[in-house]
Amino acid sequence: KKGSETKLVGSPDQFTKSGFILAAIGSAVGLGNMWKFPYITGQYGGAAFFLLFIVCLVAVGLPVLLAELSIGRGGRGNASSSFVKVGGHKAWGGMGLLSVIGAFMIMSFYAVVAGWTFHYAVQAFSGKLFANDDFGGQFSSFISGYTPIIWQAGVLIITGWIVARGISGGIEKFNKVLIPGLLVLLVILMVRALTLPGAEAGVEFFLKPDFSRLTPESALVALGHAFFSLSLGMGAMMTYGSYVDRKQSLGAATLAIGGGDLLYAFIAGLIIFPTTFSFGIDQAQGPTLVFIALPAAFSAMPFGTLFGGLFFILLAIAALTSTVSLIEVPVAYAIERWKMSRNTAVWIIIAGCFLLGLPAALSFGLVPGLTFGGKSFFDWMDFIASNIILPLGGLAVTVFAGYFWKGIGDEAGLTGLWFRVWLFMLRFVAPILVLFVFLHSAGIIKF
Ligand code: PHE
Description:
- This protein is mainly alpha-helical.
- It has one domain: Amino acid/polyamine transporter I.
- The chain contains 18 helices and two strands.
- The chain has helices spanning 17-28, 31-44, 46-75, 81-85, 90-126, 135-143, 147-164, 167-194, 199-207, 216-229, 236-241, 250-278, 289-300, 304-337, 342-362, 377-404, 408-412, 416-441, and strands spanning 371-372, 375-376.
- It has a two-stranded antiparallel sheet.
- Strand 1 and strand 2 (375-376) form a beta hairpin.
- It is globular.
- 55% of the residues are buried.
- The structure holds phenylalanine.
- The site of phenylalanine has 15 residues, from helix 1, helix 2, helix 10 and helix 14.
- Pfam families: SNF.
- GO terms for molecular function: symporter activity.
- Its main location: membrane.
- This is Transporter.
- It comes from Paenibacillus wynnii.
């Protein structure tokens, strides 16, 4: 094992201990926790689904997270070269490159949704959102117009500005302020939600499991979401791992990141379910839940302008701490592979994401013809990145770490029983389950 005396080649910019934990929690906590988690929990089984999600997170997510961090720190390279540097064949670099492309794709449409949250924050604080109570109509006329493009560009510019400042001076600094700030906002909103009349029914839906609600599909959705929520399979954790000090314990970091991700999702659930139940809103309505159902609830509660504004600010912050980690994946690649300066790499990639995100942003009605095969351009990007590339990237990590990299135990700092349990999960449990998710979401197996 190389000691901490090994100097980083060409990149002395790395995270501090706490900075790394907060940045990685920032990557994990995002629209996945605040937007997607509540609506899939609503659709796939409430509390029973939440339990299933926790099992997937602990049994499969954490082992893969530790593997990604180890490969990144062991290789000290980007999401593609790290594989090759820790002794993998070039072909593994090719799998890694797939994740780099996946991160670029996720970033392109994620910035569109992140843009929506900024628009909603402004609308809520200014009171405009509540001036007309046709929230469904407002949402669809907003996403089918051209305003989302302006916000999409705004999100990309802020992200680029942070990432251009580097790891410790940009990404770390920003997460150190925003991640604790996010927790404060979440707790305020949780107290508000839990004190609404009839909140108990929502808490019960979220926390009292009824296993008859589960379907085989629930399990696959829960596992897929555990991956997405921990930012796995896209090279993000691998890239962050490459900036971690050799002396930091990756095992402890893995537990902290997993715990952080779960905590933020838990509080998000304790905001959304009591609120929707209190106002008699259907919590199984899917992706539009936070943009249509919650404004209706906020408009009917005292100080709704304030709480609604805070809620959408919270979504926007959570999204930004994830976009910086997504963009860092192709940025690190471009810096190393094409010897670009950080600044050049950042702005070229930001421009690329804007262009690729444009048809996604416009596919909600403004430009006809962007829907084919039953899916809009936006849905296709989400589908290809989240359902195809992400599981394949995750599979590459588990198989490489479980079977091919002999030195992984040293880098991860695990020995004895824990090491054997971890290796077992990486070798047998994770790849098989991930393969199922992949085959199901690619439509190859059906229930
Ligand atoms: N984990 C983020 C979320 O939950 C999304 C993400 C996926 C970020 C992959 C980086 C890489 O929103």
